[in-house]
Amino acid sequence: MKTPKILLVVSLAAALLGPAFASEPKLDPKRIINESNSFLKEREPEMTEEEYALYQKVVTMLSSNPSFAVKLLEAMSSDKEVPSPAFQFILGNAYYAAGENDKAEANYRSSVKRFPTFLRAWVNLGILYYSSARYAEAVPCFSRAVGLGDRDSTTFGLLGYSLQKEGDLVSAEMAYMQALSGDPSNVDWKEGLLGICIDGKQFTRAESLVKNLIKERPSDARYWLAYANILLAENRKVEATVLLETASGTGVATTEELTILGDLYAEQNLVPEAAEIYHRVLVASPEMGGQKLLHYAQVLVYAGRLQDAEHVLDRFGTPGSDAASVALLQTRADLYTAERKWPEARRELELLLKIDPMNGKALVSLGRAYDSDDDVPRATLAFEEAYHVASSTYVASLELANIELKNRHYAKSVEYLEKALSIEKTDAVEDFLVRVKSLVVKDGQTNP
Question: What pTM was estimated for this model as a whole?
Fold first, then answer.
């Protein structure tokens, strides 16, 4: 009987570390663009007197009524062949505010083409690309703005995020550091830097960042999960356990954190603690919690810790008649089989087969329960049914070969062994087949 594969904490850290903090910064692009509607006269292109007069009329409505502002600005621009770069910039802002990104992009691009040092136009073009998830196009815009002297932390932060999305983690790290130097309390830039440190396995720096984030936002479960996985990646399981116990005790932990805590308890053979945590997961997320509890019970059964397995299974209610009850019934049958309680094992398996009549594993288990109770006819019937289920044909063939051998039906036993070998060749079965074939010959000589 094969021991089930135990997928506990060791495999979880690698699976969960990932790019957990590549989440989009929590800022409002429209606010940034709206705030850029005032000109820096010494460093930027100027409007004509006529354009400036119109600009003064519409500037207050760019954020409150952008559609009307667009109409007024379009009327102005239609009277002239080529509006100034400054006017195009404002027109781009109006289009962006009105949700017409294609027209906004065209005006921003024209503005920076005609006036290449127009810093805010580069920033707004970068924001337009960023807000459209066009990160490869956003990078050169933000880079150009920085090159022109922009030292705003938001520009550095958005550059870092865009670089991170494009996979340039070294440059992204530098941009995030610049952003944090100007805005040390910005959670978005800390999260971005944390993601880069985790991806690069810079766990010492990552730990410092995540501890700071937990201090600032103790109710955000993502930070607790990230910290736990950093500790697990460094094989600091005791510290991870204490951390997750704290998260659980304060009510911050979600099913993800609780599942890892349960796995840590299970790995340390803390059965009551693991069962309790898995049960909490079961209440919050029946499918996930049920899988965890059943898997844990199976591990305990195969490890011979039957009383512990019984306590875990007691946390389940009465099985229903749906597919979700199949695994529970099978696990209970496995427990009763290990305890050599054949009537109880058969009861669980018969209930299971009412739900899933062609369940090969259950049919094999039922056959073994009957065989162990010396009810060979019923055992044979169960194995024969399992034989016709593709997933259990191999195992059923071996069981039937053994029964036929006991009944001195050597030729029939050979047939089943050959069937098993046609599915999977093993030295043990091939040796068994050779021995049974010799009995066929011997039996034929004495009983012509």
Answer: 0.67
